[in-house]
Amino acid sequence: MEKLKRLDARIIIGEFSYVGARNVFCEAFKRKMYGPNYAWIIFGEFSPTKIFADDPKLRNSVLSDCSSDELKEAADGYISTIKLDIRKDNNQTISGLTSERFWWQMRQLNEHNNLRKDSAYAFDSAWVVAMALDSAFAKGMKYEKLLNRKFKQVAAIRSGIQNINFAGLTGPVGFDENRETVGTVLIKQNRDGNETRIGQHFTSSDELHLFESERNKIWEDNRPPKDHTSRKIELMMSPLPLIVIMWLMAAIGIICSLSFLYFNISKGKNRIIKMSSPKLNNIIIMGCILCYASIVLLGLDARFLDLQGYGINCNVRKLIINEHAV
Fold it and tell me: Is the pLDDT of residue 166 over 80?
């Protein structure tokens, strides 16, 4: 966490149990790594109530020493992604069943209503096996070879699995070039301790669908956090009218100084001029001219110079001021 804070990470992805989540969000609370400027994305499914549970036994069993309210404040707004247990539409699948019809039949076959969420995955997996075997049999594999498979039979079954693509109870069912399953990922967001479904990601088409009713509620002011703190360099510039006025006054000062210098040099043989230390006066006049010239250089900013020219101007200005000081 200290390294993430030092790197100024604002979008943080993690995968841990609810015990690990308590520790992580406790550290996030201590380091102020939460709020509208941070986005926490968590893989896995666990109830927020387990993270916020104010159970003394649970608190003593983990490293977290934060209160339930502190954990709730730090974890508010995190986004979690889980596999979709069953499709939410009522479209007919390859089996001829809809999701509602499937659950109805499952309740009829079971004495209790506490059904496993992954029942639909087991159902689709059975269809994958059936379709893969059907494809292998169509290519000439014999049923008797199933118990004594060789490379040819294994390759036929694997080819059948890779070509599978059908509408299952869990959504689109298929496999990519890496033989990983493609399907639908459900996206939730923790809001005041309650997980709200905000969208779905279809891995088969790599499309993200946010529910219209939740689209404008995900981020504060509908502005997602940036992945780092934005730093913008702004050059401080003086008002242009002020610069013009100072340049005019500096120009008048330079003209007057040159006039005095010319008078001192041209009338150098005059007795009164000789008695007034003309050389010292000339040095003073030259210092005034350099001082006025530095005013002109000080007014040259980003409106007149590029980055390279600005560096040269700084060096010249420093040189003139140093010469004037000497």
Answer: yes
Q: Is the pLDDT of residue 236 over 90?
A: no
Task: Give the type of residue at 315.
Answer: N
Phi, psi torsion values for 209, nearest 5 degrees: -120, 115
Residue with tokens 């709730």: 72
Bridge partners of 187, per DSSP, are: 81, 199
Return d(Cα 146, Cα 136) in angstroms, integer: 10
Cα separation, 151 vs 162, whole angstroms:
16
pLDDT over 80 at 230, yes or no? no
CA distance 312 to 307: 9
Which is it for the CA torsion 93, 97, 102, 104, positive or negative?
positive
- For the chain, the 3-state helix, strand and coil shares in percent, each to the nearest 5, are 50, 15, 35
Are residues 162 and 178 in contact, defined by beta-carbon separation less than 8 angstroms? no
Tokens 């007034």 correspond to 276
